[in-house]
Amino acid sequence: MNKDELKKIAAKEAILQIEDGITLGIGSGSTVLCFIEELKNSGKKFQDIVCASQISADALKKAGFQVSDLNAVNPPDIYVDSCDEINSLKEMIKGGGAALTREKIIAAASKKFICIIDESKKVQTLGKFAVPIEVIPMARSYVGRKIVELGGEPVWRRDCVTDNGNWIIDVHNWQIENAEKLERELKMIVGVVEVGIFSAQKASVVITAKNDGSIEKW
Ligand code: 5RP
Q1: Hey, what CATH class is 3-122+200-217 in?
Q2: Which of 68, 100, 152, 206 fits 196 for a cystine, CB–CB 3.0-4.6 Å?
Q3: Residue 198 Cα to ligand 1 middle (Å)
Q4: Are strands 197-198 and 92-93 parallel, antiparallel or unpaired?
């Protein structure tokens, strides 16, 4: 099965885990767009929906849902999102779509994080996918030098401005054995807004659509 079919299978399964009337948090990316499509078809109604990017907000509105401000609603009961990589501890790399800061905020505010993936996102060691880091624009070079000191290879994502008006540095060449430690060290660098390593805000449940179309929940 191709990746789009697998994303749809994982999204459909996630819908089954979601009750009507809850406050729902929604992430960003192509898997999440499949989820929003399935949400529209499900006919479910929610107390409130909050989401992590303008692209998701536009898709939700187009699907007939109202999107609320996180400050104005109860803590989301469930947050649904995907990731770029996930290890067996359910720690993740996120931010391929540059929405990592808002994704992490909603994940932190939510009671449960359901991560929906196709099998290709599962890895033994995080780091093959470059780690996105959102930075204040004027701090880009400074943060880049600090990343080099930590053994990473920073590459500025030139064509990208985040929904928060900031820039993204993608860090290559990291074999991440201790995600929590690296996340903490990166967060300490002045000018870093958020780090695409999700070790504290890791997934509660993962729904994996396997290559043969079957579902694994873990
Ligand atoms: C966006 C993200 C996405 O969850 C991640 O990039 C996966 O995207 P996709 O579903 O398109 O594979 O973190 O910032």
Answers
A1: alpha beta
A2: 100
A3: 13
A4: antiparallel
